[in-house]
Amino acid sequence: MKIQYNKLWKLLIDKNMKRVDLRRVTGISANSIAKLGKNEPVRMDVLMKIAEALDCKVEDLFETFKEEK
């Protein structure tokens, strides 16, 4: 399974926020932001901090799909 955080980036655009703003309001590390930008998995507590800061559900931040072989 692969993960994409396109929903998160669209949500940030809708809220007129940048990645640096997200980092500031959530307190998550620059490393976590980098992982999100590369569509790499991050810990659930990171996703929960983001969802709380953006007033949304965790499932509103990403989507998963099967990798084609």
From TrEMBL:
This is Helix-turn-helix transcriptional regulator. It comes from Peptostreptococcus equinus. Residues 44-61 form the HTH cro/C1-type domain. Gene3D superfamilies: lambda repressor-like DNA-binding domains.
